[in-house]
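dumping this here before i forget
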Amino acid sequence: WAYECRPETGAAYCPGEDYIRQVKEVGETAVCTWGLSMNGYALQHSKVTKRDPELGDKDPLADIKRWVDKYGLRWHVYYTPPHDTYWIQQHPEWRVLKSPDEKLDPPGRWQMMCLMSPYGDIVIDKLVEIVREYGVDGFNFDGWNYICPICYCVSCKDNYRKAMGADLPPKVDFSDPNYRKYIRWRDQQKIDWAIRMQRAVKAVKPDVCLMPWWVGPGRWWGMEEGKGFKWEPELVNVIADFPCLEMFWDWPLDEGGTIMPDFCMRYITGLRKGRPWCPSPSWGAHGQSGVIPRIEMRFRVAEIIANGGIPGPNMWWGAAGK
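structure:
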């Protein structure tokens, strides 16, 4: 269904009925709202994680469910899996550690949990709970990724030692055989988690659409941050129902070109083997909002189509109809 709906990629946090109605009036057939808060709190009375304390007795997901049914819209929810202030306080040992000697700050909103730790199972339980209780049509994942080249949390250290008989590599070094083994091991862990998550959610509702952001080489500049490491195993782009990648163009054009985003798009189109996917034109975020001329927006949309993708509306900062 997502191929036909081309879901909007902006997400509204606990919107009112007017927002849902506007989405319908501008011709969209699906709406995206938040499914959990940015810090991982539940928006409903959850048995899996802590409820957002600011909601009181409200159940915004129940309200949204009633409105999307009223206006005949598909409904997918936005969620950032690595964020969870509650569980980070309960199990700080599950936090992502970017270096062997990283000092842990007090738990905070933007710190990340490792999906390869037991927290990964909690994420699956969160998703299953929302599908079972509210019948959502899909999940828009922002940050379904590794976060860092090597995670040194307790789970990653113990699991790697048991599987490979070695300690985690001390740094990113492709000349180190142990690091190359780690990359293969890490990729397989993530693939196994993605398959397990998909099976659990679809056992409740088979046509749920899983739309991860930030998978593979979409944010190609991120590879420089990690000195060459790749964010995700490419196979995740095959597993996902409808991967949505944030494509980055060099801007202004006189400081770069289009070769890298074109290559990335053509590469992922090949991986998908004819199954649609959604590259984002990225004109409404990352410091580019308000500075890109309209002709550049049209060029990026044409470039996406030429390379086999379905352009995402990219309504990141705006409301429906903006």
